[in-house]
Design brief:
The protein is of the alpha+beta class and 429 residues long. It has two domains: 326 residues, Transposase Inhibitor Protein From Tn5, Chain A, domain 1, CATH 3.90.350.10; 80 residues, Transferase Inhibitor Protein From Tn5, Chain (Transferase Inhibitor Protein From Tn5, Chain A, domain2). Helices cover 33% and strands 20% of the residues. The chain is built from 13 helices and eleven strands. α10 crosses α12. The longest helix has 24 residues. It starts with 8 loop residues before the first helix and ends in an 8-residue tail after the last helix.
């Protein structure tokens, strides 16, 4: 998938019917389960996180597949109206210091089986879709055990009392954006408590471009403090009666005309006692954009997973699980281009492919120092430089950095070369 920048089974087979049949049989094999594929996501991640502070980003994306009234392909509704597909909830491990993607951790993929008739507040967590936020974080604690610290980050949907009471541990923290105005143990609500705190600091930060928003510099006012959340009467009685969390609020004070001002009210189990610590929480939360980029690579800007024509839901779910791993590899290559973190090339390439990259490197380097591969051999940054050159990047620092499309093109070229490299020592009759 990475090499062919596509998830179409026919194209993955390279035009060979036998390969196409093999891929189809693999996806339909009952022994190939989506749970096992997801389990394999973290094979390299477990060691990559060793000794690091890891930001464990999790979010949910709706993956829409085309259906008709007479053929829903076994898929359930994912939005209002005539929209059917699967839901993907992955977790990405990010280095807190450098913002480098260390790989996928865990997650879940599912399609809905009709409407739920029992009211939300009458169901226990295990019967709600929101359990994914807690269960993914709990699985991550074992997978990321070698990390020095783990900060699980989610958007507003991750803000519910069950998560605050269940997820945090000895070296595991939670950070999310406020959705519910929680009642406090001492009376009042979170928003009321925040409103009583004076502005502690002001800064200007750069906001990245995203759908519906142009990049800009935002002038922000900062407030921070701590509160004790009170267990709601609808929550499980075995949960703690209260949970102490810190709050950090940043609010844009002078937004451009006709632009919605930025306003984040963040909750975290990290202790926040100074303005510098509060800004650190904001900076960690800003890294959440990486998982949004991951979804774009998986869908519109890369693998185009939603174009798949597989007709059965069970196969589509497995395909999404495999494509998620491929998207993570592409993300790692795009990030590795800067050489900020010397991850080994083994995170994305086999030993044979690394040897092929070494041979290609000699043909892509120029005579001057500026045209040499500047990264240590055998690192992911070294491999990314080669693949980018194969994709048409000129290698000069003054040029625009290579993006996903450049890497897609380079990987497609590399795939053909690496396939031939496998037979370099085969004697022909």
């Amino acid at each position: 998938m990475v090499a062919r920048k596509n998830v179409c089974i026919r194209l993955l087979g390279g035009g060979l019917r036998s390969y196409e049949v093999c891929f189809g049989r693999f996806l339909s094999n009952a022994k190939v389960t989506v749970e096992r594929v997801i389990e394999s996501w973290s094979d390299q991640t477990r060691t990559a996180v060793c000794g690091r502070h890891v930001l464990a980003l999790q979010d949910t994306s709706e993956i829409k597949f085309a259906t008709t009234e007479t053929d829903r392909r076994g898929l359930g509704k994912i939005k209002k109206g005539n929209v059917f597909g699967v839901l993907l909830h992955p977790m990405l491990a990010i280095d807190a210091e450098h913002g480098i993607c260390l790989g996928l951790v865990s997650g879940t993929i599912w399609t809905r089986d009709g409407a739920v008739k029992l009211a939300h507040n009458k169901r226990c967590l295990e019967e709600k879709e929101s359990r994914r936020w807690v269960q993914t974080a709990q699985r991550a604690q074992e997978i990321l055990a070698q990390a020095a610290m783990i900060t699980v980050i989610g958007d507003r949907e991750a803000d519910f009392y069950g998560a605050w009471a269940r997820v945090p541990g000895d070296k595991v923290h939670l950070l999310s954006r406020l959705m519910s105005d929680h009642a406090l143990w001492d009376g009042g609500t979170v928003r009321q408590a925040v409103g009583l705190v004076d502005v502690a600091d002001r800064q200007t930060i750069a906001l990245r471009e995203r759908a519906g928003r142009k990049p800009r510099n935002a002038k922000l006012a900062l407030r921070f403090g701590s509160v004790r959340l009170k267990r709601p009467h609808t929550a499980e009685k075995q949960l703690a009666e209260n949970v102490t969390v810190s709050f950090v609020e940043v609010q844009e004070t002078d937004p451009p005309k006709s632009v919605e001002p930025l306003h984040w009210l963040l909750l975290t189990t990290h202790k926040v006692g100074t303005a510098a610590e509060a800004w650190q929480i904001v900076n960690w939360y800003k890294q959440r954009w990486i998982i949004e980029q991951f979804f774009r690579v998986l869908k519109t800007q890369g693998l185009r997973i939603e174009d798949s024509q597989l007709q059965r839901a069970d196969r589509l779910i497995k395909l999404v699980a495999i494509a998620a791993k491929a998207a993570a590899v592409i993300m790692q290559l795009v990030q590795a281009r800067d050489g900020k973190d010397h991850q080994p090339a083994e995170l994305a390439f086999s030993s044979n492919e690394i040897n092929a990259l070494g041979a290609l490197n000699k043909t892509r380097e120029g005579k001057t120092a500026l045209q040499k591969n500047p990264h240590p051999p055998g690192t992911l940054a070294w491999a990314a430089w080669i693949v980018a050159k194969l994709g048409g990047w000129d290698g000069y620092k003054s040029s625009k950095p290579p993006g996903p499309i450049t890497f897609f093109n380079g990987l497609e070229y590399f795939r053909a070369f690496a396939h031939g490299w496998m037979f370099r020592d085969v004697c022909m009759p």
